[in-house]
Amino acid sequence: MSDFVICKQERALKAKILVTIVFVFSVLMLLFGKEELWSRIWLVVFSSLFFGFSTSYKIDRDFENYKLFSVFGLVFFKTKLNLDFPDYVSVFSGSFVQNNDWSSVSAIGTKERHNKYVVRFFKENKKTTLFRSEKYDKALKKANELSKLLNVEVFDATKS
User: Fold this and answer.
1) 22: in domain
2) Nearest of 40, 130, 147, 68 to residue 156 by alpha carbon
3) CB of 111 closer than 8 Å to CB of 100
4) What are phi and psi of 145, to 5 degrees?
5) How far is CA 144 from CA 38, 41, 123, in A?
6) Is 98 in contact with 109 (CB distance < 8 Å)?
7) Does 38 reside within a domain?
8) What are the entry keywords (predicted)?
9) What is the pLDDT of residues 38-48, one digit of tens each?
10) How many domains does the chain have?
11) Could you list the residue range(s) of the whole structural domain that residue 127 is in?
């Protein structure tokens, strides 16, 4: 059994679309552009970095947790993630709003509403969202991994 669980955070749909458009545009510019080659290569490199960027939470068995910043799965920066040790892990479904408050993504709308399954830590009346998925099985698997790692119970609110 692993000594940690990784909870990858989802990027907003509009952000995914915008980054994909920029990446495709940069590849087309590399292939068909008339600008200097080095500037076209830099455009592809930078758009690739944005395309592959992701954030994740790393939850350790000893509860030394980190927020990881990665490009194509390679961690380039991490910060300490201060969480309260949970009383239990919960899985539930609901409708959630995701903000697009960064960069030019906010110009095409600042909020998205999605129906998702969510995994959260609960400590008394405090909650921390660790993972979201459109698939129940994926959310439940992540909750069970966290439960086993930290030796806390899983409360499946979708069955209530």
Assistant:
1) no
2) 147
3) yes
4) -60, -45
5) 48, 44, 17
6) no
7) no
8) Membrane, Transmembrane, Transmembrane helix
9) 999 999 999 99
10) 1
11) 4-16+51-159
Query: Is residue 29 one of the residues assigned to a domain?
Result: no
> Could you tell me which residues are beta bridge partners of residue 129?
120
Distance CA 48, CA 68 (A): 18
| Strand ranges, E, within 81-125 | 88-99, 111-123
Write a three-state SS string for 11-73. Answer: CCHHHHHHHHHHHHHHHHHHHHCCCCHHHHHHHHHHHHHHHHEEEEEEEECCCCCEEEEEECC
Residue 139 lies in a domain: yes
| 88-99 vs 111-123, strand pairing mode | antiparallel
Q: What angle do CA 132, 137, 138 make, to 5 degrees?
A: 40
pTM reported for the whole predicted model: 0.80
Judge contact between 140 and 155, C-beta under 8 A.
no
8 Å CB contact between 8 and 53 = no
